[in-house]
């Protein structure tokens, strides 16, 4: 018998002062059995960083043709494609061809350096690709915010991100490996 996803709920308040975006989002997040809660929380953080009323979660880790998050315009154009992890060059090229902007959030501690060394020249050719590395300590702190029902507030100001559940507050400054042109 196949394991089913675990459902989490998040009431996410976003104050992105840098973009002038303020919104409240009631999220239902399916955590696939093969996905860690830290990775799921990174999806929530990425949602907060790109919050928009039309931003949607993809079908998850088992869907190769969809990103972790995406923003599809009414005409079908994909304006934003957000991936997590360390995809191969082919997947990054495909995403860059399909979307106006591609954001990749890498994580994995020491495994990021060899991946980036291998990918750097290929990634540099993709001018709509931004890559942000999330350190292991931040992933652990994100995991510490996990609850089946969450009330989270995210404030983004001058590139700094604060995520709080009312008890704990996580502050991070994104580590950009590459910024889109």
UniProtKB/TrEMBL annotation:
CDD domains: YaeQ-like. InterPro entries: Restrct_endonuc-II-like (IPR011335), YaeQ (IPR009822), YaeQ_sf (IPR038590). It holds the Pfam family YaeQ. Gene3D superfamilies: Restriction endonuclease-like alpha-beta roll domain (3.10.640.10). This is YaeQ family protein.
